[in-house]
Specification:
Elements (H helix, E strand, L loop, with lengths): L2 E3 H6 L5 E3 L5 E3 L1 E2 L10 E2 L13 H6 L4 E5 L11 E4 L2 H16 L2 E6 L4 H12 L5 E3 L9 H6 L8 E5 L7 H9 L3 E4 L7 H4 L2 H8 L11 E5 L3 H7 L5 E6 L6 E8 L4 E5 L7 E3 L4 H16 L4 H9 L9 E4 L5 E5 L5 H13 L6 E6 L8 H11 L7 E5 L3 H8 L8 E4 L2 H11 L5 E5 L7 H8 L1
Parallel strand pairs: 4-5, 5-6, 6-7, 8-10, 8-11, 9-10, 11-12, 12-13, 13-14, 18-22, 19-20, 19-22, 20-21
Antiparallel strand pairs: 1-3, 2-7, 14-15, 15-16, 17-18
Helix pairs in contact: 4-10, 4-11, 10-11, 13-14, 15-16
Length: about 450
Protein backbone atom coordinates (compact mmCIF):
# COMPACT_ATOMS: atom_id res chain seq x y z
CA UNK A 1 0.00 0.00 0.00
CA UNK A 2 1.07 3.61 -0.40
CA UNK A 3 3.50 4.66 2.34
CA UNK A 4 4.54 8.29 2.11
CA UNK A 5 4.94 11.34 4.34
CA UNK A 6 2.10 13.84 4.29
CA UNK A 7 4.38 16.25 2.43
CA UNK A 8 5.04 13.60 -0.25
CA UNK A 9 1.29 12.94 -0.51
CA UNK A 10 0.62 16.67 -0.95
CA UNK A 11 3.28 16.93 -3.66
CA UNK A 12 1.57 14.19 -5.67
CA UNK A 13 -1.71 16.16 -5.83
CA UNK A 14 -1.55 19.19 -8.17
CA UNK A 15 -2.78 22.46 -6.67
CA UNK A 16 -3.01 21.14 -3.10
CA UNK A 17 -1.76 22.84 0.07
CA UNK A 18 -0.79 21.46 3.46
CA UNK A 19 -1.59 22.38 7.06
CA UNK A 20 0.08 20.62 9.98
CA UNK A 21 2.98 18.21 10.50
CA UNK A 22 4.34 17.34 7.07
CA UNK A 23 6.62 14.51 8.29
CA UNK A 24 3.92 12.15 9.57
CA UNK A 25 3.96 8.92 7.54
CA UNK A 26 0.77 7.77 5.87
CA UNK A 27 0.16 4.04 5.43
CA UNK A 28 -2.77 3.32 3.13
CA UNK A 29 -5.88 5.25 2.16
CA UNK A 30 -9.52 4.87 3.24
CA UNK A 31 -12.80 6.54 2.32
CA UNK A 32 -14.85 4.61 4.92
CA UNK A 33 -14.65 5.15 8.68
CA UNK A 34 -15.95 1.60 9.21
CA UNK A 35 -12.86 0.04 7.63
CA UNK A 36 -10.20 2.64 8.40
CA UNK A 37 -6.89 1.38 9.78
CA UNK A 38 -4.22 2.98 11.95
CA UNK A 39 -2.10 5.41 9.95
CA UNK A 40 -4.50 5.73 6.99
CA UNK A 41 -5.10 8.88 4.99
CA UNK A 42 -8.83 9.56 5.22
CA UNK A 43 -10.43 10.86 2.02
CA UNK A 44 -13.95 12.23 2.64
CA UNK A 45 -15.96 11.83 -0.55
CA UNK A 46 -18.84 14.24 -1.14
CA UNK A 47 -21.88 13.06 -3.10
CA UNK A 48 -25.41 14.23 -3.78
CA UNK A 49 -26.83 12.60 -0.65
CA UNK A 50 -23.80 12.26 1.63
CA UNK A 51 -20.74 14.19 2.75
CA UNK A 52 -17.76 12.31 4.13
CA UNK A 53 -16.44 15.50 5.72
CA UNK A 54 -19.08 15.05 8.42
CA UNK A 55 -17.33 11.88 9.60
CA UNK A 56 -13.79 13.20 9.89
CA UNK A 57 -13.77 13.14 13.70
CA UNK A 58 -14.85 9.50 13.66
CA UNK A 59 -12.05 8.78 11.16
CA UNK A 60 -9.49 10.44 13.43
CA UNK A 61 -10.70 8.46 16.45
CA UNK A 62 -10.46 5.26 14.38
CA UNK A 63 -6.80 5.88 13.53
CA UNK A 64 -6.59 8.28 10.58
CA UNK A 65 -3.19 10.02 10.54
CA UNK A 66 -4.13 12.77 8.05
CA UNK A 67 -7.07 13.87 5.90
CA UNK A 68 -7.78 15.36 2.51
CA UNK A 69 -10.20 18.28 2.70
CA UNK A 70 -12.33 20.16 0.18
CA UNK A 71 -11.10 23.71 0.64
CA UNK A 72 -14.69 25.03 0.46
CA UNK A 73 -15.86 22.89 3.40
CA UNK A 74 -16.19 24.51 6.87
CA UNK A 75 -15.07 23.07 10.22
CA UNK A 76 -11.52 22.13 9.22
CA UNK A 77 -10.21 19.55 11.73
CA UNK A 78 -7.39 20.56 14.07
CA UNK A 79 -4.58 18.56 15.61
CA UNK A 80 -4.06 16.46 12.45
CA UNK A 81 -2.35 17.15 9.10
CA UNK A 82 -4.81 18.40 6.49
CA UNK A 83 -4.18 18.44 2.73
CA UNK A 84 -6.49 21.03 1.13
CA UNK A 85 -7.76 20.24 -2.39
CA UNK A 86 -10.41 21.57 -4.72
CA UNK A 87 -12.24 18.24 -4.86
CA UNK A 88 -11.39 15.17 -2.78
CA UNK A 89 -12.53 12.63 -5.39
CA UNK A 90 -10.42 14.21 -8.12
CA UNK A 91 -7.51 14.41 -5.67
CA UNK A 92 -7.89 10.70 -4.84
CA UNK A 93 -7.71 9.89 -8.55
CA UNK A 94 -4.68 12.14 -9.11
CA UNK A 95 -2.90 10.63 -6.12
CA UNK A 96 -3.54 7.08 -7.39
CA UNK A 97 -2.27 7.90 -10.88
CA UNK A 98 0.94 9.55 -9.64
CA UNK A 99 1.62 6.78 -7.14
CA UNK A 100 1.14 4.10 -9.80
CA UNK A 101 3.64 5.95 -12.01
CA UNK A 102 6.12 6.15 -9.12
CA UNK A 103 5.91 2.43 -8.41
CA UNK A 104 6.51 1.80 -12.11
CA UNK A 105 4.16 -1.15 -12.56
CA UNK A 106 2.92 -2.51 -15.83
CA UNK A 107 -0.88 -2.24 -16.03
CA UNK A 108 -3.40 -4.65 -17.55
CA UNK A 109 -6.85 -3.08 -17.94
CA UNK A 110 -9.83 -5.44 -18.33
CA UNK A 111 -13.32 -4.53 -19.49
CA UNK A 112 -16.22 -6.14 -21.36
CA UNK A 113 -19.93 -6.84 -21.02
CA UNK A 114 -19.46 -10.31 -19.52
CA UNK A 115 -16.54 -12.17 -18.02
CA UNK A 116 -14.51 -9.21 -16.73
CA UNK A 117 -13.97 -10.61 -13.26
CA UNK A 118 -13.38 -14.18 -14.43
CA UNK A 119 -10.86 -12.98 -17.03
CA UNK A 120 -9.15 -10.81 -14.41
CA UNK A 121 -8.86 -13.83 -12.11
CA UNK A 122 -7.44 -15.94 -14.95
CA UNK A 123 -4.90 -13.29 -15.91
CA UNK A 124 -3.87 -13.09 -12.25
CA UNK A 125 -3.32 -16.86 -12.10
CA UNK A 126 -1.22 -16.76 -15.26
CA UNK A 127 0.92 -13.74 -14.37
CA UNK A 128 1.43 -14.83 -10.75
CA UNK A 129 3.49 -17.77 -11.98
CA UNK A 130 6.26 -15.32 -12.89
CA UNK A 131 5.58 -11.85 -11.46
CA UNK A 132 4.49 -10.00 -8.32
CA UNK A 133 0.89 -9.10 -9.20
CA UNK A 134 -1.99 -7.11 -7.71
CA UNK A 135 -5.57 -7.42 -8.97
CA UNK A 136 -8.85 -5.62 -8.37
CA UNK A 137 -10.76 -7.20 -5.48
CA UNK A 138 -14.54 -7.39 -5.30
CA UNK A 139 -16.39 -4.66 -7.20
CA UNK A 140 -13.68 -1.98 -6.85
CA UNK A 141 -13.84 -1.30 -10.59
CA UNK A 142 -15.27 2.23 -10.83
CA UNK A 143 -14.00 5.82 -10.54
CA UNK A 144 -13.60 5.42 -6.77
CA UNK A 145 -12.77 1.73 -6.41
CA UNK A 146 -10.06 1.57 -9.07
CA UNK A 147 -7.98 4.43 -7.56
CA UNK A 148 -8.24 2.72 -4.16
CA UNK A 149 -6.96 -0.49 -5.76
CA UNK A 150 -4.04 1.39 -7.33
CA UNK A 151 -3.14 2.83 -3.92
CA UNK A 152 -2.90 -0.73 -2.55
CA UNK A 153 0.14 -1.37 -4.77
CA UNK A 154 3.26 -2.49 -2.95
CA UNK A 155 6.62 -1.05 -3.98
CA UNK A 156 7.69 -4.46 -5.35
CA UNK A 157 4.51 -5.03 -7.41
CA UNK A 158 5.40 -5.62 -11.05
CA UNK A 159 1.97 -5.84 -12.70
CA UNK A 160 -1.44 -4.46 -11.72
CA UNK A 161 -4.58 -6.05 -13.19
CA UNK A 162 -7.34 -3.44 -13.05
CA UNK A 163 -10.96 -4.29 -13.83
CA UNK A 164 -12.84 -1.39 -15.41
CA UNK A 165 -16.62 -1.24 -15.08
CA UNK A 166 -19.11 1.28 -16.42
CA UNK A 167 -22.73 2.27 -16.73
CA UNK A 168 -22.45 5.10 -19.27
CA UNK A 169 -20.19 6.65 -21.90
CA UNK A 170 -17.01 8.34 -20.70
CA UNK A 171 -16.49 6.19 -17.60
CA UNK A 172 -14.07 3.70 -19.16
CA UNK A 173 -12.21 6.60 -20.78
CA UNK A 174 -11.65 8.18 -17.36
CA UNK A 175 -10.42 4.90 -15.86
CA UNK A 176 -8.11 4.21 -18.79
CA UNK A 177 -6.54 7.65 -18.58
CA UNK A 178 -5.95 7.16 -14.86
CA UNK A 179 -4.40 3.70 -15.24
CA UNK A 180 -2.54 4.20 -18.54
CA UNK A 181 -2.59 0.46 -19.37
CA UNK A 182 0.21 -1.37 -21.17
CA UNK A 183 -2.33 -4.04 -22.11
CA UNK A 184 -6.07 -3.46 -22.61
CA UNK A 185 -8.44 -6.45 -22.73
CA UNK A 186 -12.04 -6.44 -24.00
CA UNK A 187 -13.74 -9.76 -23.27
CA UNK A 188 -16.90 -9.31 -25.38
CA UNK A 189 -19.86 -7.08 -26.18
CA UNK A 190 -23.18 -8.17 -24.70
CA UNK A 191 -26.46 -6.58 -23.67
CA UNK A 192 -25.61 -5.26 -20.21
CA UNK A 193 -26.25 -1.50 -19.94
CA UNK A 194 -28.72 -1.42 -22.83
CA UNK A 195 -30.98 0.63 -20.55
CA UNK A 196 -28.34 3.39 -20.41
CA UNK A 197 -26.69 3.11 -23.83
CA UNK A 198 -29.53 1.95 -26.06
CA UNK A 199 -27.73 -0.46 -28.43
CA UNK A 200 -24.90 -2.97 -28.65
CA UNK A 201 -23.16 -0.58 -31.03
CA UNK A 202 -23.06 2.09 -28.33
CA UNK A 203 -21.91 -0.48 -25.76
CA UNK A 204 -19.03 -1.43 -28.09
CA UNK A 205 -18.01 2.24 -28.41
CA UNK A 206 -18.08 2.61 -24.63
CA UNK A 207 -15.89 -0.47 -24.12
CA UNK A 208 -13.44 0.72 -26.79
CA UNK A 209 -12.78 3.78 -24.62
CA UNK A 210 -10.24 1.57 -22.83
CA UNK A 211 -7.72 2.40 -25.58
CA UNK A 212 -7.85 6.13 -24.75
CA UNK A 213 -5.14 5.73 -22.12
CA UNK A 214 -3.31 2.82 -23.76
CA UNK A 215 0.43 3.46 -23.91
CA UNK A 216 1.98 3.97 -27.35
CA UNK A 217 3.77 0.62 -27.29
CA UNK A 218 0.77 -1.08 -25.69
CA UNK A 219 -1.51 -3.77 -27.12
CA UNK A 220 -5.27 -4.27 -27.27
CA UNK A 221 -6.36 -7.88 -26.74
CA UNK A 222 -9.96 -8.39 -27.83
CA UNK A 223 -12.56 -10.90 -28.95
CA UNK A 224 -12.07 -11.20 -32.70
CA UNK A 225 -15.38 -13.04 -33.13
CA UNK A 226 -17.20 -9.78 -32.34
CA UNK A 227 -17.54 -7.62 -35.50
CA UNK A 228 -18.52 -4.56 -33.44
CA UNK A 229 -15.04 -4.52 -31.90
CA UNK A 230 -13.27 -5.02 -35.21
CA UNK A 231 -15.26 -2.24 -36.88
CA UNK A 232 -14.69 0.19 -34.01
CA UNK A 233 -10.95 -0.42 -34.17
CA UNK A 234 -11.08 0.61 -37.82
CA UNK A 235 -7.84 1.78 -39.38
CA UNK A 236 -6.22 2.88 -36.14
CA UNK A 237 -2.56 2.20 -35.54
CA UNK A 238 -3.29 0.40 -32.25
CA UNK A 239 -1.59 -2.98 -32.08
CA UNK A 240 -4.31 -5.60 -31.70
CA UNK A 241 -4.25 -9.29 -30.75
CA UNK A 242 -7.47 -11.25 -31.30
CA UNK A 243 -8.80 -14.39 -29.64
CA UNK A 244 -11.90 -16.49 -30.26
CA UNK A 245 -13.23 -19.63 -31.89
CA UNK A 246 -12.79 -18.62 -35.53
CA UNK A 247 -9.53 -19.46 -37.27
CA UNK A 248 -8.91 -15.90 -38.43
CA UNK A 249 -8.06 -14.95 -34.82
CA UNK A 250 -4.46 -14.74 -33.62
CA UNK A 251 -5.36 -17.21 -30.86
CA UNK A 252 -8.14 -19.75 -31.37
CA UNK A 253 -9.40 -23.07 -30.04
CA UNK A 254 -8.41 -26.31 -31.76
CA UNK A 255 -10.15 -28.70 -29.36
CA UNK A 256 -12.30 -28.60 -26.24
CA UNK A 257 -13.49 -31.31 -23.85
CA UNK A 258 -15.97 -30.71 -21.03
CA UNK A 259 -15.24 -32.72 -17.87
CA UNK A 260 -17.57 -32.89 -14.88
CA UNK A 261 -15.57 -30.33 -12.88
CA UNK A 262 -13.17 -28.80 -15.40
CA UNK A 263 -12.68 -27.95 -19.06
CA UNK A 264 -9.74 -29.18 -21.16
CA UNK A 265 -8.70 -27.51 -24.41
CA UNK A 266 -5.89 -26.85 -26.87
CA UNK A 267 -5.10 -23.74 -28.89
CA UNK A 268 -3.65 -22.87 -32.28
CA UNK A 269 -0.38 -21.31 -31.14
CA UNK A 270 0.72 -24.17 -28.85
CA UNK A 271 -0.71 -27.46 -30.21
CA UNK A 272 1.50 -29.57 -27.92
CA UNK A 273 0.25 -27.97 -24.69
CA UNK A 274 -3.01 -29.08 -23.06
CA UNK A 275 -4.82 -26.53 -20.91
CA UNK A 276 -7.20 -27.35 -18.07
CA UNK A 277 -9.29 -24.82 -16.19
CA UNK A 278 -11.20 -25.83 -13.02
CA UNK A 279 -14.35 -24.12 -14.28
CA UNK A 280 -17.10 -25.07 -16.71
CA UNK A 281 -18.24 -23.63 -20.02
CA UNK A 282 -17.01 -22.71 -23.49
CA UNK A 283 -17.44 -19.04 -22.60
CA UNK A 284 -14.91 -19.49 -19.82
CA UNK A 285 -12.47 -20.98 -22.31
CA UNK A 286 -12.87 -17.75 -24.28
CA UNK A 287 -11.89 -15.85 -21.14
CA UNK A 288 -8.91 -18.17 -20.74
CA UNK A 289 -7.79 -17.34 -24.29
CA UNK A 290 -7.63 -13.68 -23.31
CA UNK A 291 -5.52 -14.61 -20.28
CA UNK A 292 -3.19 -16.69 -22.46
CA UNK A 293 -2.73 -13.74 -24.81
CA UNK A 294 -1.79 -11.53 -21.84
CA UNK A 295 0.68 -14.18 -20.65
CA UNK A 296 2.27 -14.22 -24.11
CA UNK A 297 2.66 -10.44 -24.04
CA UNK A 298 4.66 -10.79 -20.81
CA UNK A 299 6.80 -13.58 -22.34
CA UNK A 300 5.52 -16.41 -20.16
CA UNK A 301 6.00 -19.87 -21.77
CA UNK A 302 2.82 -21.69 -22.82
CA UNK A 303 3.56 -24.57 -20.43
CA UNK A 304 3.83 -22.14 -17.50
CA UNK A 305 0.62 -20.41 -18.57
CA UNK A 306 -1.09 -23.83 -18.47
CA UNK A 307 0.15 -24.36 -14.89
CA UNK A 308 -1.25 -20.99 -13.88
CA UNK A 309 -4.68 -21.67 -15.38
CA UNK A 310 -4.89 -25.09 -13.74
CA UNK A 311 -4.46 -23.47 -10.29
CA UNK A 312 -7.14 -20.84 -10.99
CA UNK A 313 -9.31 -19.65 -8.12
CA UNK A 314 -12.38 -17.69 -9.20
CA UNK A 315 -14.25 -14.98 -7.34
CA UNK A 316 -17.30 -16.60 -5.70
CA UNK A 317 -20.64 -17.08 -7.46
CA UNK A 318 -19.15 -17.36 -10.95
CA UNK A 319 -19.72 -20.84 -12.33
CA UNK A 320 -18.90 -22.19 -8.89
CA UNK A 321 -19.53 -25.97 -8.67
CA UNK A 322 -20.76 -26.98 -5.21
CA UNK A 323 -21.68 -30.42 -3.86
CA UNK A 324 -24.67 -30.48 -1.51
CA UNK A 325 -25.03 -32.64 1.60
CA UNK A 326 -27.76 -34.60 -0.20
CA UNK A 327 -25.49 -35.72 -3.03
CA UNK A 328 -26.55 -33.38 -5.85
CA UNK A 329 -24.41 -30.66 -7.42
CA UNK A 330 -25.11 -26.94 -7.76
CA UNK A 331 -23.62 -24.53 -10.27
CA UNK A 332 -23.65 -21.16 -8.52
CA UNK A 333 -23.55 -18.40 -11.14
CA UNK A 334 -25.66 -15.93 -9.19
CA UNK A 335 -23.31 -12.94 -9.33
CA UNK A 336 -24.55 -11.41 -12.57
CA UNK A 337 -26.55 -12.13 -15.72
CA UNK A 338 -27.20 -10.90 -19.24
CA UNK A 339 -28.81 -12.65 -22.23
CA UNK A 340 -25.34 -13.64 -23.50
CA UNK A 341 -24.10 -15.11 -20.22
CA UNK A 342 -27.49 -16.68 -19.48
CA UNK A 343 -27.49 -18.55 -22.80
CA UNK A 344 -23.90 -19.66 -22.25
CA UNK A 345 -24.75 -21.08 -18.82
CA UNK A 346 -27.83 -22.89 -20.15
CA UNK A 347 -25.78 -24.39 -23.00
CA UNK A 348 -23.20 -25.58 -20.49
CA UNK A 349 -25.82 -27.33 -18.35
CA UNK A 350 -27.48 -28.93 -21.37
CA UNK A 351 -24.18 -30.48 -22.48
CA UNK A 352 -23.03 -31.78 -19.11
CA UNK A 353 -22.99 -35.56 -18.84
CA UNK A 354 -23.27 -37.96 -15.92
CA UNK A 355 -26.29 -36.49 -14.10
CA UNK A 356 -29.73 -37.98 -13.54
CA UNK A 357 -31.88 -34.84 -13.71
CA UNK A 358 -31.00 -31.25 -14.60
CA UNK A 359 -32.69 -28.25 -13.00
CA UNK A 360 -32.40 -24.60 -14.03
CA UNK A 361 -33.20 -21.76 -11.62
CA UNK A 362 -33.24 -18.40 -13.42
CA UNK A 363 -34.04 -14.93 -12.11
CA UNK A 364 -34.37 -11.47 -13.60
CA UNK A 365 -31.66 -9.95 -15.80
CA UNK A 366 -31.51 -6.26 -14.93
CA UNK A 367 -30.68 -3.06 -16.87
CA UNK A 368 -31.74 -4.37 -20.28
CA UNK A 369 -33.88 -1.42 -21.33
CA UNK A 370 -37.07 -1.40 -23.40
CA UNK A 371 -36.63 -4.93 -24.78
CA UNK A 372 -36.15 -6.57 -21.39
CA UNK A 373 -39.29 -8.73 -21.65
CA UNK A 374 -38.29 -10.01 -25.10
CA UNK A 375 -34.77 -10.88 -23.90
CA UNK A 376 -36.21 -12.93 -21.04
CA UNK A 377 -38.74 -14.64 -23.30
CA UNK A 378 -35.98 -15.60 -25.76
CA UNK A 379 -33.93 -17.15 -22.96
CA UNK A 380 -36.90 -19.36 -22.10
CA UNK A 381 -37.38 -20.36 -25.74
CA UNK A 382 -33.80 -21.58 -26.11
CA UNK A 383 -33.98 -24.14 -23.26
CA UNK A 384 -34.12 -27.66 -24.73
CA UNK A 385 -36.70 -29.89 -22.97
CA UNK A 386 -34.73 -32.96 -24.10
CA UNK A 387 -31.68 -31.78 -22.17
CA UNK A 388 -33.23 -30.04 -19.13
CA UNK A 389 -35.79 -31.65 -16.85
CA UNK A 390 -37.17 -28.71 -14.83
CA UNK A 391 -37.13 -24.92 -15.14
CA UNK A 392 -37.67 -22.68 -12.11
CA UNK A 393 -37.98 -18.91 -12.60
CA UNK A 394 -38.10 -16.10 -10.08
CA UNK A 395 -38.92 -12.41 -10.19
CA UNK A 396 -41.01 -9.92 -12.11
CA UNK A 397 -39.19 -10.58 -15.39
CA UNK A 398 -38.53 -14.24 -14.66
CA UNK A 399 -42.14 -14.89 -15.58
CA UNK A 400 -41.23 -14.01 -19.19
CA UNK A 401 -38.62 -16.79 -19.16
CA UNK A 402 -41.34 -19.18 -18.01
CA UNK A 403 -43.60 -18.01 -20.84
CA UNK A 404 -40.80 -18.65 -23.33
CA UNK A 405 -40.52 -22.28 -22.25
CA UNK A 406 -44.21 -22.93 -22.94
CA UNK A 407 -43.63 -23.64 -26.63
CA UNK A 408 -41.69 -26.80 -25.79
CA UNK A 409 -42.09 -27.77 -22.12
CA UNK A 410 -44.97 -29.50 -20.39
CA UNK A 411 -46.58 -27.25 -17.78
CA UNK A 412 -45.64 -29.53 -14.88
CA UNK A 413 -41.93 -29.08 -15.66
CA UNK A 414 -41.92 -25.26 -15.40
CA UNK A 415 -42.43 -23.35 -12.15
CA UNK A 416 -42.52 -19.59 -11.59
CA UNK A 417 -42.27 -17.97 -8.15
CA UNK A 418 -42.54 -14.48 -6.70
CA UNK A 419 -41.48 -15.69 -3.24
CA UNK A 420 -38.00 -17.15 -2.83
CA UNK A 421 -38.84 -19.43 0.09
CA UNK A 422 -41.58 -21.10 -1.97
CA UNK A 423 -39.13 -21.71 -4.81
CA UNK A 424 -36.65 -23.29 -2.38
CA UNK A 425 -39.29 -25.56 -0.84
CA UNK A 426 -40.54 -26.77 -4.22
CA UNK A 427 -37.07 -27.32 -5.62
CA UNK A 428 -35.91 -29.18 -2.51
CA UNK A 429 -38.87 -31.54 -2.83
CA UNK A 430 -37.85 -32.58 -6.36
CA UNK A 431 -34.05 -32.62 -6.49
CA UNK A 432 -32.30 -35.89 -5.63
CA UNK A 433 -28.81 -37.34 -5.27
CA UNK A 434 -27.11 -37.47 -8.68
CA UNK A 435 -28.94 -34.39 -10.01
CA UNK A 436 -27.52 -30.97 -10.85
CA UNK A 437 -29.00 -27.48 -10.39
CA UNK A 438 -27.88 -24.32 -12.23
CA UNK A 439 -28.68 -21.04 -10.42
CA UNK A 440 -28.27 -17.77 -12.35
CA UNK A 441 -29.61 -14.21 -12.21
CA UNK A 442 -28.49 -10.62 -11.86
CA UNK A 443 -26.84 -9.77 -8.55
CA UNK A 444 -29.80 -7.75 -7.37
CA UNK A 445 -31.99 -10.88 -7.26
CA UNK A 446 -29.81 -12.44 -4.53
CA UNK A 447 -30.28 -15.99 -5.77
CA UNK A 448 -27.23 -17.04 -3.73
CA UNK A 449 -29.84 -17.45 -0.98
CA UNK A 450 -31.26 -20.34 -2.98
CA UNK A 451 -27.77 -21.84 -3.29
CA UNK A 452 -27.15 -21.58 0.45
CA UNK A 453 -30.48 -23.25 1.22
CA UNK A 454 -29.77 -26.08 -1.23
CA UNK A 455 -26.29 -26.67 0.15
CA UNK A 456 -27.79 -27.39 3.55
Amino acid sequence: MITRTVREIQQLIPGSTLQGNSEIVIKGVSIDTRTIEQGNLFVPIKGEKFNGHEFVQQAIESGAAAVLWNQSEPNVPSGIPVVFVEDTLTALQQLAKKYCEQVGVKVVGVTGSNGKTTTKDMIFSVLSTTYQVLKTEGNFNNHIGMPLTMLRLKEDTEIAILEMGMSSRGEIELLSQLALPDVAVITNIGESHLMDLGSREEIAKAKMEIVSGLKKEGVLIYNGDEPLLTSNLGNSDIKGVTFGQNEQNDLYLTSIEQQQQSTIFTISQAPDVTYEIPVLGVHNVQNALAAIAVGCYFNIPFSTIAEGLKSLKLTNMRMELISSLKGFDIINDAYNASPTSMKAAISLLENLKGYNQKFIVLGDMLELGEQEKLFHYEVGRMIDPKKVDYVFTYGQLGVEIAKGTQEAFEKERVYHFREKHQLIECLASLVRSGDIVLVKASRGMRLEEVVEALKA
